[in-house]
Structures are given as C-alpha cells and as structure tokens.
Amino acid sequence: MSANQPGATTAALPWAGHGLGSTGYRRVLAALACSGVATFAQLYSVQGLLPLMSRDLGVTAAQASLAISVATMGLAVAVLPWSFVADRAGRVRTMGLAVMLATVFGLLVPAAPNFEVLLVLRALEGAALGGVPALAIAYLSEEISPRHAGAAAGAYVAGTTLGGLFGRLLAGPVADLAGWRVGTLAVSICAAAAAAGFLLLAPRPRGFVPVHRGGFGAALARLLPQLRNKRLLALYAQAFLLMGAFVSVYNYLGFRLEAPPYLLPASAVALLFLAYLAGTVSSRAVAGLAARFGRRNMLLASTAVMVGGLAVTLSGVLPVILAGLVLFTAGFFGAHSIASGWTGALATSGRAQASSLYNLSYYAGSSLVGWAAGLVFQGAGWAALAAALAVLAVLAAVTAAVLLPAGHPQRSFR
C-alpha cells in the first residue's frame, strides 16, 4: 500500500526516502553541495599556498604542510564526537552548527600573528569541520531512497570536489595579488555564504530517529560492531591509504613546479586543482559502472588508475605531468565515491558511527601520510615520493581484494 492509497497513514509506514528527481532529493543534494563548499573550500584553501607560506613564515615544506595536517587531524579526531551529538540533536542541526563554528575559526586564520597560532586555529577549524563529512553520508542514507542512495553519494562526493576546487582556485590568484592571508580570508567569506545556503536549503529531516538512551557505554556499543566488521575495516583502510596518497601529491607537487625548471607562480599552481574536475566526473560515473561490474571491481580499477597516474607524473614534461595528475585525481575520487557509499550500505546499525570511522581514517591518512610524505620529498625527491605513494595504493588494493566481497554486480551494494 502506498502512502497515497486510502487507509495509508504516515505513522504506519516507515520513511521510504526522497526519490530521484523529487524536490526533496534536489534540496538534500543542493544543501550538501553548500556544505561541501563551506567545508572543503576552507579545509584545503591553503594547500596551493604552501610555498608562499613557507617563504613568508620561514618554515620548511614539511612544516608548511602541517597547516593542512593539523586541520585534517582535528577533523579526524572530531568526527566521532560529532556523530554522537548528531544521534541526539539531529543531522541537519549538528551539521549547521559545525559549518558555522568552522567559518568563525576560518575568519580568524588570516589574522594569526605567527606559525604556531596559525596551526592552533587550523586545528580548531578542522575539528569544527568534522561535523560535516562525519554526517553527510548518514544523512543521505536516512533521507534518500535506498534505490538512489548510491547515486546520491556519488553526487555528494562530486560536490565536495567542486568545493575543494573553488577554495584553491580563489585563494591562489588572490594570494598572488595580496598575500596568502588575504587569499584565505576571501575563501572564508565565501564559505560563510555557503554555510547560510546549507541552512536555508536542507529540508526537514524525516528519516532521523533520535538516540536518547545511555551514556558512554551505549555510545561504545554503537561503535564496536563497526570495528568488528572486516568489510568495514577494509573500507577504512582504503580511506587511510588512498587519501594519504592523494593529499601528498597535491601538497608537494606545487613545490616541485615552483622550482626550476618550471618556476610557476602561485596563481598557476592554483590551476593544478582544475584536475579536480576529473574527480567530479569520475565520482558520479563509477556509481553507474559499479551497478554493472560490481563495487569491488570498480574500486580496484579506480586504484589502478591512481597508480597509473602517479607513474605518468614521473615525466619531466609539464603537460605530461598534468595529464598524470588528471588520471590520478579521477582514480582517487572514483575509489573514494565507491568506498564511502559502500560504508553507509554495509552499516545496518550505528550508521553515523560507521561513516565517522571512515572519515576518521580518511583524514588521519591525510594528516599522517601527508606530513610524512614531505620528509620523503625533501630527502629524496619526487620519484621517491611517487614510488612510496604507489606502494600505499597497492596495499589498499590488496586489502580490498582479500576482504571485500566480489558479489554479483547488481547485488554488490551490500
């Protein structure tokens, strides 16, 4: 019986989710697109500015990368606390609070008097931002029809690529004209507008059921099943290893291309992030391909594209390096789209916690690998860095091949 038939009541039927093309579906995706801009534009806006910050603040490349690492580590540490808050307060309300707090800290970053204060503010900004990616997939899973949740997750990941791209493209040219502080300020102002868009567009939650029972023990009980599930652990390994490789490439490629023989300015380095558009396309495309060929197969194929792209960046010819970056980026976002969406599908309970653990792994990889890779780059150069990151990607692929089910293509979403 449908909700439109006589005798059917809203109370008698579980929420089936917004269907593809409905007003609610479009509003959910538009709201999450705004949250993606507010989150990822701020989180990574300084990435293209690291060489400028390194010179201005008198720090090394690896030290400058801490401006990214402390923010992503703050996010990683905060995702679980945010998930427990959201279990009581609701996904939309919690995400709104998170983006507003992050915007306040983001507006303070340009005023940091020294590198140490800058790192503290970036860590706080990252911790506030943890409330968005921690909950976005859980929110989608609750509000979007299960038939279309995978496609919606792909669309959300595509939106996050645009948010990250926007922040980097805006910060680079502004920084060339007025310095890195004004560049980051411009991004934070735009993020504030995007945060307002999220609050206005997000529809009233209908699939959320508050969790009021228990304290720490009950929270731990919702967390432990996710840590005992080998398939979820395999997806968390994908997040850590692949994101670590991805952020490392974007952290240090700018240093390579600002040095001889390339000597690119900050505004040109910012254009490297146009490669994110390949991720915008691939993150949506793999959803349809996974329905045909299976999620594991597409995850492994995407990882192989990443490794191939890394190999191409070993060239000394600038256009070839850029082509490798495009391949690498497309592969990463394809893999991330598959893994993040699969996490929500595998978690039958504690969905917010499962999503948060994925994000904890994702941003822990960004922080730890992103920093350690700088030591490799400083000590041995780009070829050694690319080889080390390729090893991480192969480890991720082996983990996926061993622990994740192949399944029938049409049934591989669980």
Automatic annotation (TrEMBL):
<keyword id="KW-0813">Transport</keyword>
<keyword id="KW-0812">Transmembrane</keyword>
<keyword id="KW-0472">Membrane</keyword>
<protein>
    <submittedName>
        <fullName>MFS transporter</fullName>
    </submittedName>
</protein>
<feature type="transmembrane region" description="Helical">
    <location>
        <begin position="119"/>
        <end position="140"/>
    </location>
</feature>
<feature type="transmembrane region" description="Helical">
    <location>
        <begin position="327"/>
        <end position="348"/>
    </location>
</feature>
<dbReference type="Pfam" id="PF07690">
    <property type="entry name" value="MFS_1"/>
</dbReference>
<dbReference type="InterPro" id="IPR011701">
    <property type="entry name" value="MFS"/>
</dbReference>
<dbReference type="InterPro" id="IPR036259">
    <property type="entry name" value="MFS_trans_sf"/>
</dbReference>
<feature type="transmembrane region" description="Helical">
    <location>
        <begin position="182"/>
        <end position="202"/>
    </location>
</feature>
<dbReference type="InterPro" id="IPR020846">
    <property type="entry name" value="MFS_dom"/>
</dbReference>
<feature type="transmembrane region" description="Helical">
    <location>
        <begin position="232"/>
        <end position="253"/>
    </location>
</feature>
<dbReference type="GO" id="GO:0005886">
    <property type="term" value="C:plasma membrane"/>
</dbReference>
<feature type="transmembrane region" description="Helical">
    <location>
        <begin position="299"/>
        <end position="321"/>
    </location>
</feature>
<feature type="transmembrane region" description="Helical">
    <location>
        <begin position="383"/>
        <end position="404"/>
    </location>
</feature>
<comment type="similarity">
    <text>Belongs to the major facilitator superfamily.</text>
</comment>
<feature type="transmembrane region" description="Helical">
    <location>
        <begin position="28"/>
        <end position="46"/>
    </location>
</feature>
<feature type="domain" description="Major facilitator superfamily (MFS) profile">
    <location>
        <begin position="28"/>
        <end position="408"/>
    </location>
</feature>
<feature type="transmembrane region" description="Helical">
    <location>
        <begin position="259"/>
        <end position="278"/>
    </location>
</feature>
<keyword id="KW-1003">Cell membrane</keyword>
<dbReference type="GO" id="GO:0022857">
    <property type="term" value="F:transmembrane transporter activity"/>
</dbReference>
<feature type="transmembrane region" description="Helical">
    <location>
        <begin position="360"/>
        <end position="377"/>
    </location>
</feature>
<keyword id="KW-1133">Transmembrane helix</keyword>
<feature type="transmembrane region" description="Helical">
    <location>
        <begin position="152"/>
        <end position="170"/>
    </location>
</feature>
<feature type="transmembrane region" description="Helical">
    <location>
        <begin position="66"/>
        <end position="85"/>
    </location>
</feature>
<feature type="transmembrane region" description="Helical">
    <location>
        <begin position="97"/>
        <end position="113"/>
    </location>
</feature>
